[in-house]
Amino acid sequence: MNISASLVKELREKTGAGMLDCKKALVETEGNIDAAVDWLREKGISKAAKKADRIAAEGTAAILVDGNDAVILEVNSETDFVAKNDEFKSLVQTLLETIIKSNAKTLEETLELETENGTLNDLIVSKTATIGEKLSLRRFAKVTKADKETFGSYIHMGGKIAVLIVTENTNEEVAKDVAMHAAAMRPQYVTIEEVPEDVVEKERSVLTEQAMNEGKPKEIAEKMVQGRIQKFYKEICLEEQQFVKDSDLSVKQFVKNNGGTIKEMYRYEVGEGMQKREENFAEEVAKQMK
Description:
Tetrahydropterin Synthase, Chain A; alpha+beta; three-stranded antiparallel sheet; 10 strands; 290 residues; single chain; 48% helix; Helicase, Ruva Protein, domain 3
């Protein structure tokens, strides 16, 4: 059936649902706009759409390991209360189990993966309507390791931070120790070589300016900057950081002492880089009780 753009627009204005959902509703109801409104309401899409512009920067980060495959993801909600909700936890588990069985590479592909209750996007929309808060899958990574490699995973503060590490020629205990270190020390890269040149140059520029402002001669300033760049690497690179369990060792040396090397790191901290809701605790509790 041919559905006009004006009809889709009208339905969208009535419900706040997305264009594709509106078109689908009109197709399903043979162009009957009132029936289409009901169809969207029944699917929970109309209700969920009204929450689409809300800020969802709470939630959970989670990991699922199955043999040589692992998935790490971040799912957001509006409040920390909902992140502890059983329905929310069930959604997260379904996302993990569906993604780990798939070959999806992008968020768009992932949201189209089929479950027993429609696509993952359908499920998120449905849970948004049921729970009453905006929910979203923010990011994920599916990682496949070789047989001689080991996963180390660590969840901190019930899902506020999740870290997945891949090491080679070590055991799971060593890999988990590295994951726990990464959770605490917030490295951004595994090795110095991974740090983008523009990031280094920006830091070098700032440090040079600082040294010159201290009145140092150019030759002295350059030496100071070189030393401070090394310190910068020790702050942002996992391998260069002092190991939290033994400050006499770098993380690289700790892993090497155990016969191995670090191959990959994935560190998700819930809400990092996102705008946070500005509400006080009492108001949040009151909303939950309504």
